[in-house]
């Protein structure tokens, strides 16, 4: 700004000087000794004759804005679909491990076709079925507990994180119903068989379709439990 002011003053001075002397020359001359411009710096006329460039003193520096994004929630397990199997009448956990939750909420839903039914929200259970409950295990496991599982519990469940867009983990629960078959001493199925009174009966109980072998089997004759009936000679092999 200072150089521009000097340039304007120099033009005014030169114009007045030419008018007073009657000269028609437009050549810019250096002022004589004793002129007010004698106090100007020695390189003033060199700067004046150079092309004019003006740099605003209030020029703002360019600021590069850096945006830091918050960590986004993600499932700890490397898959978004799980298949879980459990035996009829047993208890089962559906696991949902979430990292960097950042204040978001985890919910469990039951899907039936296009319908979703809320089971849990955060650590609160909203299902009217008391067999369902939420158990949180540090550091990141939101476990849905289903007690005394029955065949109606089979199907898809969703663990949802309230992020944008929402995260969804699909868990398909399969209820395994054991298959029980009674065989005679020859290994043949015995839906009906007749024995003489006082004879020895040998029956075999074959159980299939169970995730884990059972260590406890009970025998019943109608409503009577035979395992502990001392009035009947029973040998379990």
UniProtKB/TrEMBL annotation:
<dbReference type="InterPro" id="IPR013783">
    <property type="entry name" value="Ig-like_fold"/>
</dbReference>
<feature type="domain" description="Ig-like">
    <location>
        <begin position="178"/>
        <end position="219"/>
    </location>
</feature>
<keyword id="KW-0732">Signal</keyword>
<dbReference type="Pfam" id="PF07686">
    <property type="entry name" value="V-set"/>
</dbReference>
<feature type="signal peptide">
    <location>
        <begin position="1"/>
        <end position="22"/>
    </location>
</feature>
<dbReference type="GO" id="GO:0032589">
    <property type="term" value="C:neuron projection membrane"/>
</dbReference>
<dbReference type="InterPro" id="IPR037448">
    <property type="entry name" value="Zig-8"/>
</dbReference>
<dbReference type="InterPro" id="IPR007110">
    <property type="entry name" value="Ig-like_dom"/>
</dbReference>
<protein>
    <submittedName>
        <fullName>GD16142</fullName>
    </submittedName>
</protein>
<dbReference type="InterPro" id="IPR036179">
    <property type="entry name" value="Ig-like_dom_sf"/>
</dbReference>
<dbReference type="GO" id="GO:0050808">
    <property type="term" value="P:synapse organization"/>
</dbReference>
<dbReference type="InterPro" id="IPR013106">
    <property type="entry name" value="Ig_V-set"/>
</dbReference>
<feature type="domain" description="Ig-like">
    <location>
        <begin position="78"/>
        <end position="163"/>
    </location>
</feature>
């Amino acid at each position: 700004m200072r150089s521009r002011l000097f340039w304007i003053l120099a033009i005014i001075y030169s114009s007045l000087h030419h008018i007073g002397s009657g000269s028609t020359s437009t050549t810019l001359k250096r002022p004589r000794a004793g002129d007010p411009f004698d106090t100007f710096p020695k390189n003033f006329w060199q700067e004046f004759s150079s092309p004019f460039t003006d740099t605003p003193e209030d020029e703002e520096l360019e600021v590069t804005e850096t945006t830091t994004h918050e960590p986004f929630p993600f499932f700890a397990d490397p898959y978004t679909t799980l298949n879980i199997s459990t035996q009829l009448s047993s208890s089962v956990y559906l696991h949902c491990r979430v990292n960097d939750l950042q204040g978001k909420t985890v919910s469990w839903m039951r899907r039936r076709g296009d319908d979703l039914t809320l089971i849990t929200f955060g650590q609160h259970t909203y299902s009217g079925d008391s067999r369902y409950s939420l158990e949180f295990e540090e550091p990141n496991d939101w476990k849905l507990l289903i007690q005394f599982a029955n065949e109606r519990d089979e199907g898809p469940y969703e663990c949802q994180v309230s992020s944008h867009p929402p995260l969804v983990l699909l868990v398909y629960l399969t209820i395994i119903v054991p298959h029980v078959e009674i065989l005679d001493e020859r290994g043949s199925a015995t839906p009906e068989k007749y024995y003489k009174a006082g004879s020895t009966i040998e029956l075999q109980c074959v159980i299939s379709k169970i995730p884990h072998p059972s260590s406890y089997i009970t025998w019943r004759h109608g409503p009577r439990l035979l395992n502990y009936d001392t009035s009947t000679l029973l040998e379990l092999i």
